[in-house]
Amino acid sequence: MNPLPFMVIPLTITSVSEDVPLAYYHLIIAFGATLCALSFIYLVFTQKYTVTKNAIFTLLLFSGMYYLAYSLVDKFYELSLKGEYIELKYAPPSRDRMLSKHEVSSVTFGSSGRSGRRCYVALNLLSGKRYKSAPLIGDVRYYQRVSVDLQKQLKSES
Asked: Where are the membrane-spanning stretches (predicted)?
C-alpha cells in the first residue's frame, strides 16, 4: 500500500540508458564539427571561393549534421505509466512529455537494422503524432510482448 494515498508509483515499461542516445548525439556533433572545420580550412587554403562563400557552405554543412544529430535524440529512452498519464523521457530533459492515456490510439512495435536485434516501441496518438523509442537492444520478443501488453493495458483502462 502507498504510504501516501495521493502518490502515484510509476510503472516503467521500457527503458534504455540515457547514455545511448546522448552518445549518438555527441558522436555526430563531434564528427560534424571536425568535418566542418577541416572543410573550411581546405576551402580557405585552396582559395577557390571567397571566405564568405566558404563560411556559408560550412554553416550549411554543420546545420545538416546538427539536424541529423537532433533527429537521433528525438526518441524517448524511457516510458513510464503514472496513473492516467504516460511519461516519456528524452535525453535532453527539456523534451520530456506527459501524455494522457486517452490520447494514445495504438502502440506499435518494429525492428530496425539488418540483424533485427534492434527494435523500437512507438506510441501513435489520435492527433496523428507518433513518439518512437530509442533503439532497444536485447530480446526482440520481450519488447514485442511489452508493446502488446502496453496496448492491452491502455485499451482496458479507456
From this structure: 23-43, 55-73
CA distance 109 to 121: 5
- What residue numbers bound the domain in which 43 lies? 19-73
Q: Phi-psi region for residue 83, left (φ > 0), alpha (ψ -120 to 50) or beta?
A: left
For 102-151, how does the pLDDT look when each residue is reduced to its tens digit (9 = 90+)? 898 888 888 776 666 778 888 999 999 999 888 777 777 777 787 888 88
Cβ atoms 91, 106 nearer than 8 A: no
Return the C-alpha cell found at 43. 576551402
pLDDT, tens digit, for every residue of 40-89? 889 888 888 888 888 899 999 999 988 888 777 788 888 888 888 888 88
* pTM of the predicted model as reported, rounded to 2 decimal places: 0.65
CA distances from 73 to 40, 41, 134, 143, 158 (A): 27, 29, 8, 20, 30
Q: What is the CATH number of the domain that holds 138?
A: 2.30.29.30
Are 131 and 152 found together in one domain? yes
Query: Quick one: which H or E segment has residue 82?
Result: strand 78-82
